[in-house]
Amino acid sequence: MAKSGREVDAQSVAAFTVLKRAVELDSESRYQQALVCYQEGIDLLMQVLRGTKDDTKKSNLRKQITGYMDRAEIVKKYLDQEKEDGKYHEQIKIEENATGFSYESLFQKYLNETVTEVWIQDPYIRQIHQLYNFLRFCEMLIKKPCKVKTIHLLTSLDEGSGKQQQSSGLQEIKESLQNHGVLLEIEYSSSVHDREIRFRCW
């Protein structure tokens, strides 16, 4: 079914809004997010092209699409090379009280058969729910296709009433991972404040 001119115009506005955001992210060196926006914007612009009858507009759209596709390909190659060199770094910002972020949705794209070692820095793995979340994260790491052999945890020591709970909880997780052939190395530091996760690939 042919689209009306109004529908095409709305799609065009949506496409260029997304592509404008892609260019902004690109200029800020936020390449992974920029690539997603480029791909989405190009797809929308292709739909606009299919609904455009004017030859001059079609020609202009094709030139714009080609330009955005060329830039997206450069960004993609850059990201691929960064990943290959082990230099790729992505920061994911999750607002307070945000929902819908599972470990799989956040990390699945990085977990493949080349990942062998993981570093986790989290100052608060003390309470039952924190220990449970850490356990769930470890469970994800030992699923196929991952071949994780060592997990390094840097956290802070609970000096209060929860010390025994923290110690026994982490020991249980360590023994459970050992049964799967995975070594959990635990280190405590009073100076750790930020959360960070790093993967090593062979």
UniProtKB/TrEMBL annotation:
Segments forming domain MIT: 8-86
Stretches assigned to coiled coil: none
Subunit structure: Homodimer. Interacts (via MIT domain) with CHMP1A, CHMP1B, CHMP2A and IST1.
Cell compartments where the protein resides: Endosome membrane; Late endosome membrane; Midbody
One biological process term in Gene Ontology: midbody abscission
GO cellular component: late endosome membrane; midbody
Gene name for this UniProt entry: LOC123391848
Protein name: MIT domain-containing protein 1
Bilayer topology annotation: Peripheral membrane protein
SUPFAM superfamilies for the chain: MIT domain (SSF116846)
Keywords of this entry: Cell cycle, Cell division, Endosome, Membrane, Transport
Species this chain originates from: Mustela putorius furo
Gene3D superfamilies from the UniProt entry: MITD, C-terminal phospholipase D-like domain, Phosphotransferase system, lactose/cellobiose-type IIA subunit
